[in-house]
């Protein structure tokens, strides 16, 4: 097969969907260049993504399976170092992954999902009351005022983090997903989130509570499966980052889609379609997580004429999967909550399927339904084409979401 030069991914994320279409057209795996000149294999086909997400020859553990990282060829100030230097269930492989997922899974019980429901309702109401206090017709950034604080505060509650600590950590997370950062910033990011998690763990050791951090500290000795301090630190941060940033972008994308498709918003508010339809179609067409660095080939992997050599990095494009015309036809790019098949992999697939998916769906349903009950005439304050994407190819969302508020319906007037 003809050897192609690697395609440099756009670190500013200006049009991740068009970029994915071009890469998908080149075959099942395409060599791309990441920041810092690091090369990886980009996967943009739904069928190949599903295959590799369950393939035991694919790992997320750089420490054991990425020769360039093991040999010191990847510098400690590499722009994306935070994504591969973690030591938790996200990057674990084989038996280690099973051990860590079992421990962390105990923190995501159905009981905890139900226990947090009143807090979701309470916080949603507080945020919407704050919006209702503004003058009708005023333009506000709904990402800043609603899409961000709702999931971020809920995940902070889950791990037992104060709002002050969350505010400081949020800045680190924003920089971590930014694929335009400098090597100096990358070094500071890694140290910043680890320091923040160490402070949280120390406080919970001194004063344990009803939260996931306290549960994981208690689980360090359970069943002889001890969490190392690094695993504990990095696991809590993974829960914070995954639980907040992806849900923030989900709200951003779902609200944008509904405001630009008022006929579909009418279907769901009239009961002709469900909020589950909105959730799954949004996840399909606008996955909040675009591309998650990185996976690695444990051995050579053959993909329809393309060989991914052992040890090479692999970049799965989740945002490309649901838009693959081979799965959803030529209108795969179109937001349509009435389509019968809304298949997607936005919660992952296989061994790394998102443990927090149940909580995320609950937050999404309550948050969206209550928002549009309180503000049924909500509208975008700019043209959709004027919305600016986040400066990243890792996440899929907007820098801001300007909307025009109308007179709100009094709280409790709508049906929940």
From TrEMBL:
Source superkingdom: Bacteria
Keyword Oxidoreductase: yes
Any one Pfam family match given in the protein's UniProt record, by short name: p450
Protein name: Cytochrome P450
Keyword list, A-Z: Heme, Iron, Metal-binding, Monooxygenase, Oxidoreductase
Family as reported in the entry's similarity comment: Belongs to the cytochrome P450 family.
Keyword Cell inner membrane: no
